[in-house]
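wait is this the right file?? whatever heres the structure
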């Protein structure tokens, strides 16, 4: 016979699992992708999981593993990424369509000056775990038109943000510079790495934002 105390615990446990399941299926769950070593996990989490708290995420979120080469191009309304190195972040994000993005650098790492291209970005929040005092910074990217309707791949990505990954190393606040005349952009920044390798579509409705 099961003693009442453990029966109670069992019940509580089941209730807990039920509540958690219910919670994560709620409408306010958001996508969290985190990398840890060679592992990439794609999770659906209730809002408010503390940055870089991997064990809390394993407990509260429903997660599945992602193979680095099986990552599909997706669009996200809200996306949080916890990362530890620039190349994995690049694999995850390059030319992805994300409206509201939160990036957390977990651990003490120095990132290279390398630009990451993101489409349709409207709001960016960043934090670095190693920074004391810990603070989150945010930035609204100017967007005059509806960026959702204008995405059909890189050549038609009308709102492109280039994020300098080295900004995670700095203490200065987030800044952005937007320009909608692409021809003057290529003239003013001829050495910008992206304009050499993949020319920005020569389209008058293209808005480029550099975040640094
Ligand atoms: C989601 O969040 C909004 C505002 O933050 C709140 O009004 C709403 O009740 C939440 N919905 C659920 C299912 O938790
Ligand atoms: C993560 O999961 C969401 C929802 O299942 C999916 O739309 C998205 O493509 C996944 N992302 C990656 C990088 O696998
Ligand atoms: C855009 O930039 C080009 C090259 O600098 C310039 O000739 C042109 O007048 C600019 N167009 C507008 C609308 O500002
Ligand atoms: C520029 O973008 C607009 C809006 O998406 C599109 O209708 C037009 O065909 C594009 N023009 C070129 C030359 O790509």
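ok assuming it is, sequence goes like this
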């Amino acid at each position: 016979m099961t003693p009442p105390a453990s029966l109670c615990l069992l019940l509580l446990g089941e209730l807990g699992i039920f509540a958690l399941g219910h919670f994560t299926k709620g409408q306010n769950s958001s996508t969290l992708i985190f990398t840890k070593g060679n592992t990439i996990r794609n999770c659906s989490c209730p809002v408010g999981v503390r940055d870089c708290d991997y064990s809390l995420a394993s407990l509260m979120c429903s997660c599945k593993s992602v193979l680095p080469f099986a990552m599909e191009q997706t669009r996200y309304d809200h996306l949080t990424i916890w990362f530890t190195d620039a190349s994995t972040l690049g694999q995850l994000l390059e030319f992805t369509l994300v409206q509201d993005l939160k990036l957390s650098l977990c651990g003490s790492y120095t990132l290279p000056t390398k630009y990451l291209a993101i489409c349709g970005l409207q709001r960016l929040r960043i934090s670095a775990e190693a920074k004391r005092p810990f603070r989150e910074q945010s930035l609204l990217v100017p967007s005059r038109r509806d960026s959702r309707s204008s995405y059909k791949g890189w050549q038609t990505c009308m709102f492109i943000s280039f994020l300098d990954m080295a900004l995670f190393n700095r203490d200065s606040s987030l800044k952005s510079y937007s320009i909608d005349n692409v021809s003057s952009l290529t003239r003013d920044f001829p050495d910008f790495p992206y304009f050499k390798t993949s020319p920005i579509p020569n389209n008058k409705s293209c808005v480029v934002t550099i975040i640094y």
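The longest strand covers residues 96-105. so i think its the right one actually
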